[in-house]
Structure formats: structure tokens, C-alpha cells
Amino acid sequence: MASEPVNVNEFQELARQALPKMYYDFYTGGAEDQHTLKENVAAFRRIMLRPRVLVDVSRIDMSTTILGCKISAPIMIAPTAMHQLAHPEGEVATARAAAACNTIMILSNMSTCTVEEVASSCNAVRFFQLYVLKRRDISAQIVHRVEKNGYKAIVLTVDTPRLGRREADIKNRMVAPQLRNFEGLLSTEVDTDEGSNLEALAEGIFDTSLSWEDIGWLKSITNLPILIKGVLTHENARKAVEVGVAGIVVSNHGARQLDYTPATISVLEEVVHAVGGRVPVLFDGGVRRGTDVFKALALGAQAVLVGRPVVYGLAANGERGVRRVIEMLKDEFELTMALSGCPRVKDITRSHVTTEFDKLR
Ligand code: FNR
């Protein structure tokens, strides 16, 4: 590495240097005009902090508990597809970094290492992200493997009946490799010369008919808690609680699905109010600083998930790179807690931030 990065944003350039353009563009891009992509980050910058002074901050405790799993800080690893395109060790390296940082990794359904390989490579607490396939029998088999291999929750992604239009992938004719979780079950290699192979893959295998009633089906095939990922409105948050999910992830899929959805941080509070503490609310989209983690918690999230920076860390320096990304965010978050007068996570409250909407209240 040229010079050691001092913040997680600096890993992006290292990833750019390390990766073929097709893969870098795949990891970094968003949908269509990428308006939401910019907003996810920009909206954090419009939130200001309201620190309290003369609080004893000689000991800072960042630890928290998510669905019964104790972790060192409320910073988790978001599910992102195909880590072996970033680094030969793929998701195994990411999981080892999660274990070293004592946090939770959410393994993507579209991973390049199998559920079993990731489980046996380390003792990280793992959740599994699921896309429901047209072939429900294959989804059910995968869920059973996930359960058997000690994953602690299913994170059902609900914002992807079809893939968003990612124009760089279309231009680059992004190619999807055979995804190993589906080996022997389903071919994920798509043979088309036009546009993004990933888009064609999703169209071929994802169940576009998936609806609220199907949460019942998923519950009937697993005893694991089910979180749903991709909620942006109070209407859907209420519905999710009604159908009995164990948690909600406020997410716009890192702005890769529907462009012109709001920045996730600007709708977090709406969802948190609708949920009213009945289930935990997790958050992702644009978290790049410890102050972002603090802001999301002040607005009611129990923890944040980090997507692209983890992949950039992996591309730049494998397991060590991912570890550095998580450690940097943890260090910055700890400092933010100290300088805000919040020695414990539960000391972080709504009154520690002001948002652009507060003036309108
Ligand atoms: C994703 N995301 C995603 N989500 C999911 O549920 N299943 C998946 O397989 C993927 N794959 C994926 C690949 C890449 C390259 C990216 C960047 C994102 C979305 C991811 O879980 C998360 O919602 C966002 O990445 C969070 O935003 P940031 O942290 O990237 O800004």
C-alpha cells in the first residue's frame, strides 16, 4: 500500500487501484442518475451534533446486543455480493475480520464462498441474507443449510424483485460468476452479450411475486428470527411488525435499486416511530464516519451496517483491510461518544443531534 489510510473513505481509492474497472464499478455504483447514492452520504452532513460537556468519559463502552448477540460496537457488516471479485479469499476473509472485531457479518445469498466455508472459517456471529427465488425449494434448502451451520438470523431483502438499473454494469457488460451456494442446484452463469449479466440473472431467478403473505411461508420453514431489509416508510414498518418480523433494516440497498428514494438517514426516524420499540431497527446507507454511526443511533437505530467500505478494505488488503475499516469506524465512534458526553451506547439520545427537519417542527 502507498500510504496507510487514515479514514475509511481513503480505502476507496486503494480499491480502485487494486481492481479491474468492471468490478470496481460494480462495487461502487448506484442506480440510474445515482442521486440517492450521493444523498445517502450528503444527508449525514446536514445533521449536526449537540454534545454535552463535563460528563465522566474516562471509560467508554461501545458494546451492544443485537437479537441476543453481544457485539463490541453497533457496527455490523452489511451483506454484499461476490467478495471473491475483490479478493481471492472472499467472504472467508471478511468473516475472519468480523470475528477479530467481535461484530456480526451478514453473509449475502450471492456470496462467492459457500455458507459452509464461511461458517467453518471462524467463530464470527453470522446472519444470512436471503433473496427468495422462483425455485422456492432451492431457497428452502439454502435456509436449512444456513440453520444447520449456526447462522443466527435470516435477513430477507425485500427491495429487489428486480435489479435496479446500474448503468456502469450495463456498459461494462458485468459478468456474474457461478455463485457457489447454488452449485448443483442452479446455474448462475448467464450467457448474454447485452447489458449487465447480473440484471439478466436476477430476472431469471428472483421471485417477483414475493409479497407480505410469504413471510408466513418463510416462518414455516425456519425457526431463525427473520429481519426484513429494505424498509423506507412508516406504512411498511407497521406492516412488518404486524406480520411478526424480528427486526427491520432501514435500507435503500446502498442506492442500487430505486433512484430518488430518500437518503436512508432522513427516513430512519419515521420508521423508528412507527415501530415504537416493538422490534429492533437497524440501519444502512452511507455510513463512512464514526459520527455517522452516532447520528444513526441518536435517531433510533440499534446498529448500523456498513457495505461499500468493507468491500474496499477487502480489495485493498484482504482480511486486514476489512479489519482496519471496522476498527477505524469503531475508533471514530468511540471518540464521538467521548466528545459528546455519552460513555455508553444507551446515553446517546435524540437530543444529541439536530436535523434539518427539527426547524420545521
Ligand atoms: C450490496 N447490497 C446487497 N444487499 C443485499 O441484501 N444483498 C446483496 O447481495 C447485496 N449486494 C451488494 C453488493 C454491493 C457491491 C453493494 C455496494 C451493496 C446492499 C448492502 O447490503 C447495503 O444495503 C448497502 O451497501 C449499504 O450502503 P453503503 O454502506 O454501501 O453506503
TrEMBL record:
<keyword id="KW-0285">Flavoprotein</keyword>
<dbReference type="InterPro" id="IPR037396">
    <property type="entry name" value="FMN_HAD"/>
</dbReference>
<dbReference type="InterPro" id="IPR013785">
    <property type="entry name" value="Aldolase_TIM"/>
</dbReference>
<dbReference type="GO" id="GO:0003973">
    <property type="term" value="F:(S)-2-hydroxy-acid oxidase activity"/>
</dbReference>
<keyword id="KW-0288">FMN</keyword>
<protein>
    <recommendedName>
        <fullName>(S)-2-hydroxy-acid oxidase</fullName>
        <ecNumber>1.1.3.15</ecNumber>
    </recommendedName>
</protein>
<dbReference type="GO" id="GO:0005777">
    <property type="term" value="C:peroxisome"/>
</dbReference>
<comment type="similarity">
    <text>Belongs to the FMN-dependent alpha-hydroxy acid dehydrogenase family.</text>
</comment>
<feature type="binding site">
    <location>
        <position position="251"/>
    </location>
    <ligand>
        <name>FMN</name>
    </ligand>
</feature>
<feature type="binding site">
    <location>
        <position position="131"/>
    </location>
    <ligand>
        <name>glyoxylate</name>
    </ligand>
</feature>
<keyword id="KW-0560">Oxidoreductase</keyword>
<feature type="binding site">
    <location>
        <position position="229"/>
    </location>
    <ligand>
        <name>FMN</name>
    </ligand>
</feature>
<dbReference type="InterPro" id="IPR012133">
    <property type="entry name" value="Alpha-hydoxy_acid_DH_FMN"/>
</dbReference>
<keyword id="KW-0576">Peroxisome</keyword>
<dbReference type="GO" id="GO:0010181">
    <property type="term" value="F:FMN binding"/>
</dbReference>
<feature type="binding site">
    <location>
        <begin position="79"/>
        <end position="81"/>
    </location>
    <ligand>
        <name>FMN</name>
    </ligand>
</feature>
<feature type="binding site">
    <location>
        <begin position="284"/>
        <end position="288"/>
    </location>
    <ligand>
        <name>FMN</name>
    </ligand>
</feature>
<feature type="domain" description="FMN hydroxy acid dehydrogenase">
    <location>
        <begin position="1"/>
        <end position="358"/>
    </location>
</feature>
<feature type="binding site">
    <location>
        <position position="108"/>
    </location>
    <ligand>
        <name>FMN</name>
    </ligand>
</feature>
<feature type="active site" description="Proton acceptor">
    <location>
        <position position="253"/>
    </location>
</feature>
<dbReference type="GO" id="GO:0042742">
    <property type="term" value="P:defense response to bacterium"/>
</dbReference>
<dbReference type="InterPro" id="IPR008259">
    <property type="entry name" value="FMN_hydac_DH_AS"/>
</dbReference>
<feature type="binding site">
    <location>
        <position position="157"/>
    </location>
    <ligand>
        <name>FMN</name>
    </ligand>
</feature>
<feature type="binding site">
    <location>
        <position position="256"/>
    </location>
    <ligand>
        <name>glyoxylate</name>
    </ligand>
</feature>
<feature type="binding site">
    <location>
        <position position="166"/>
    </location>
    <ligand>
        <name>glyoxylate</name>
    </ligand>
</feature>
<dbReference type="GO" id="GO:0050665">
    <property type="term" value="P:hydrogen peroxide biosynthetic process"/>
</dbReference>
<dbReference type="InterPro" id="IPR000262">
    <property type="entry name" value="FMN-dep_DH"/>
</dbReference>
<dbReference type="Pfam" id="PF01070">
    <property type="entry name" value="FMN_dh"/>
</dbReference>
<feature type="binding site">
    <location>
        <position position="253"/>
    </location>
    <ligand>
        <name>glyoxylate</name>
    </ligand>
</feature>
<feature type="binding site">
    <location>
        <begin position="307"/>
        <end position="308"/>
    </location>
    <ligand>
        <name>FMN</name>
    </ligand>
</feature>
<feature type="binding site">
    <location>
        <position position="129"/>
    </location>
    <ligand>
        <name>FMN</name>
    </ligand>
</feature>
